[in-house]
Amino acid sequence: MGAVTSSIRGAFSAPKPKKVLMLSLDNVGKSTIFYRMQGNETAVPFPHIGIETEDIRHKRCTFRAWDVSSQAVSRRMWSSAFPDTEALVFVVDTSDRERLEEAAEELRTALAHDDMRGCRSVLVYANKQDCDGCLSVAEVTSGLGLPRVAAGRKWTVQSCIATRSIGVMDGLDWLEASLIGDA
Ligand SMILES: Nc1nc2c(ncn2[C@@H]2O[C@H](COP(=O)(O)OP(=O)(O)OP(=O)(O)O)[C@@H](O)[C@H]2O)c(=O)[nH]1
Ligand SMILES: [Mg+2]
């Protein structure tokens, strides 16, 4: 009887969404990516301070994406959003070479935090690939020091033009595979 009850419960209860935290320096295109992930091809984000969350169903996975605003004043509060994170989406503005080191420092700090121990996957969007002289995927990978900083986790760098929805869904494909176990 117990077995029947639990199998019925299992059939009706949806799996818990996997928490995906989105972080970046400010103005890099993170909210634009957040909207494209939801299938909204036209939304233009407005600057906000705080956190927006949305459940995104993608293939076999439901993600609860957290878009954490990156105004310098609120970056110190990022860590309050860390607990229960299963994957980190980190967005880099590849047209802004000057701030790659600052981005690397923020990524390093976030991944080293105790409350990020459960974060198994790191997806980096190398965004604004439509801009002249932008950083390549290889430059972003080495500039962030990813093999070292994300050691022990699955990670990838996805080339992206969020405003044209290019590369966003490829990133979600990787995230889904990495959290389900194929990647
Ligand atoms: N050229 C170009 N511009 C982009 C791209 N993606 C986003 N942008 C622009 O970058 C600006 C910032 O985009 P947001 O999505 O608001 O950036 P954000 O990272 O959420 O900014 P914060 O909320 O301040 O953290 C906007 O003007 C976007 O239109 C892209 O792929 N290429
Ligand atoms: Mg934003």
Automatic annotation (TrEMBL):
<dbReference type="GO" id="GO:0005525">
    <property type="term" value="F:GTP binding"/>
</dbReference>
<dbReference type="GO" id="GO:0046872">
    <property type="term" value="F:metal ion binding"/>
</dbReference>
<feature type="binding site">
    <location>
        <position position="31"/>
    </location>
    <ligand>
        <name>Mg(2+)</name>
    </ligand>
</feature>
<keyword id="KW-0460">Magnesium</keyword>
<keyword id="KW-0342">GTP-binding</keyword>
<dbReference type="InterPro" id="IPR024156">
    <property type="entry name" value="Small_GTPase_ARF"/>
</dbReference>
<dbReference type="Pfam" id="PF00025">
    <property type="entry name" value="Arf"/>
</dbReference>
<protein>
    <recommendedName>
        <fullName>ADP-ribosylation factor</fullName>
    </recommendedName>
</protein>
<feature type="binding site">
    <location>
        <begin position="127"/>
        <end position="130"/>
    </location>
    <ligand>
        <name>GTP</name>
    </ligand>
</feature>
<keyword id="KW-0547">Nucleotide-binding</keyword>
<dbReference type="GO" id="GO:0003924">
    <property type="term" value="F:GTPase activity"/>
</dbReference>
<dbReference type="InterPro" id="IPR027417">
    <property type="entry name" value="P-loop_NTPase"/>
</dbReference>
<dbReference type="InterPro" id="IPR006689">
    <property type="entry name" value="Small_GTPase_ARF/SAR"/>
</dbReference>
<keyword id="KW-0479">Metal-binding</keyword>
<comment type="similarity">
    <text>Belongs to the small GTPase superfamily. Arf family.</text>
</comment>
